[in-house]
Amino acid sequence: MTAPDVAAPAPTTLAEPAARVGVGFIVLFGLLNFGLYLTVMMPALFSLPYKIGMLDPDNKASLLGLVATVGAVVGLIAGPIAGVLSDRTRTRIGRRRPWLIAGILVLALGSSVVALAGSAGILLLGWVIVSLGGACTAAAISPIVAERVPEAQRGIMGAIVGVATQLGGVLGYTIGGLLTTNLLLMFLVPVIVLAVLAALFMIAVAEPAVELPRTTLAQTFRLFVFNPRKHPDFSFLWLGKLLMQTALAFLTTYQLYFLLDRLGFTAEQAGSQLALVGGLGILITMTFAIVSGTLSDRLKRRKAFIYGASGLTAVGLVLMAFADGFGLFFAAVLCILGAAGMFGSVDVAMASDLVPERAQAGRWMSIYNLAATLSTAIAPVIGAALLLVGPTAGGNYTVLFLAGAALAAGVGVTTGFIKGVR
Fold first, then answer.
1. pLDDT at position 199, please?
2. Which end of the chain is more exposed for a tag (fewer CB within 10 A), N or C?
């Protein structure tokens, strides 16, 4: 008699991916990341500063710094927890999908609260909810490259992520500028876009089955800690990510106010000008991201591109520090966008290469993403302090951006200590 069929248990480890992913996967993954970064970049670059400027115009810079910092601290705590728990989630639809679905629902709730807030306290509460939702969605999406994409394709996948990030920012300006008369739509449109694109990805792409041992809450918190001496390459990668993202956050957090305070634009004019810059910036970012990611795969070199991104970011921020007109601002932003495309594509590939335990990619990529989250927590605080240096009217943007240039240059130093990739 033939034994009845029994479903094989899900594996408890995940091997290095060997099969190349197809064009369909790449396109859907790119769209998913675009949806994610639209929900991140549009509020960070336009919607939240615009809302705060309406709510408290006299204290907009300090209130923006407070809200951004509190939200980042929430993400700093929630992100790793969501990453580790998603590694160990067991449901019929997989271990990542429940976190993606829940994250989108929480994002919708928090965005609605922020849009309708009539006081700083309610706005802060809404942004905390948004940060929780963002942590859940990122925990579901960030491990995908390490889990499913072979090393030979990680550069191009990183390029896709870099392009998606910049598209999210540019279209965020455009959409935000068009929706200034309807704040609820301004905050909900990115979440709706993410929901549609996430549904397409989940329907079309199967999730690999892995079942890690269940863990207690105390064990979960212990998983956030790792020994830098045991994983020095990952540690220097993390530090470089923190430095670069902090430097970029000085610009992204305060560039709208820079245009208002130093260049004298209205909020609507600033939004349209930023969309114009971003439109050309898409071409610059895509070129740098795709060329860098593709060449880093073919040449099997990662570090040279990080060195280039570090130097170009520093140059762009120095130009920004002394910009006294839109022309120089335009040139500075294009330098920085090109550098961001180069850095984003290759840095994601390096992180995926250096993940110490592939079956726990959610844990390690969440720790890696902590660097970006931490930067959004400290950059507004440091930036607000730097803007107060000296008696400069409207804020000392020169000191702010020169400090960012120094941080960007430091990325080249940390990258030099990484030995596991060339």
1. 95
2. N
Which residue type is seen at 295?
L
pLDDT (mean) for 104-112: 96
Question: Is the pLDDT assigned to residue 389 strictly greater than 70?
Answer: yes
* Alpha carbon separation from 330 to 276, 289, 325, 342, 418 (Å, rounded): 9, 19, 9, 19, 34
What are the tens digits of pLDDT across the range 216-233? 556 666 666 667 777 788
Cα–Cα distance measured from residue 157 to residue 86, given in angstroms and rounded to the nearest whole number: 22
Tokens of 230: 């045991």
Rounded to the nearest angstrom, the gap between the alpha carbon of residue 122 and the centroid of all alpha carbons in its chain is: 25
Q: Are 168 and 37 in contact (CB under 8 A)?
A: yes
What is the full DSSP assignment across 113-170?
Answer: HHHH--SHHHHHHHHHHHHHHHHHHHHHHTTHHHHHS-GGGHHHHHHHHHHHHHHHHH
Task: Break the chain down into helix, strand, coil percent, rounded to 5.
Answer: 80, 0, 20
* Amino acid 219: pLDDT: 64
DSSP conformation class of 10: P
Spell out the residues 6+ positions from residue 314 whose beta carbon is closer than 8 angstroms to its own: 405, 406, 408, 409
pLDDT digits (tens, 9 = 90+) for 330-353: 899 889 988 988 887 788 778 777
Nearest CA among 190, 210, 209, 193 for reference residue 201: 193
Q: How far is CA 252 from CA 33, 62, 171, 228, 232, in A?
A: 19, 15, 14, 30, 30
Mean pLDDT of the residues in the chain = 82
106 pLDDT more than 90: yes
Q: What letter would DSSP give residue 421?
A: -
30 Cβ neighbours under 8 A, 6+ residues apart: 160, 161, 163, 164
Per-residue pLDDT for 312 more than 70?
yes
CA 252 to mean position of chain CA atoms: 12
pLDDT at 188: 95
Q: Find, among 143, 132, 16, the residue nearest to 87 by Cα.
A: 143
Please state, in angstroms and rounded to a whole number, the distance separating the CA atoms of residues 166 and 144: 20
DSSP 43: I
Q: Provide DSSP, 340-369.
A: HHHHHHHHHHHHHHH-S-GGGHHHHHHHHH
Cα separation, 96 vs 331, whole angstroms: 41
